[in-house]
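Table 4 source record.
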Amino acid sequence: MKEGKSVKLNLQQQSHQNGHLSPFKLAKLLDPEASWDKDQLGDVLHWIRQVVALVCGLLWGTIPVVGGVWFVVFLLISSGIIYGYYAMILKIDEEDFGGHTALLQEGLFASITLFLLAWILVYSLAHF
């Protein structure tokens, strides 16, 4: 078993030395035993939040809903999904990554922008 790990480690080191990064494995996204560095986890949380923002924005614009309460609902859904992902699925120690605040803020402002853009655009195009 140790030989397999050392061969994998050598292959990863060689790929980094050649200037090529090894491909990101999708299975790692749901593996609580996987090791994460701060940048990788931040990127994953950022893109999950962007997908949630786009889906919610398109849905809110299509339904058509209006009002600030739906903005708060989006924030709760988005933050709940992010918290559930890193706390319940990945089971990481949030203190290793700067605490709950740092993890929950990852990609927040970009997702708010995307959410509002999608919501306003779809609502305006579909209902006016």
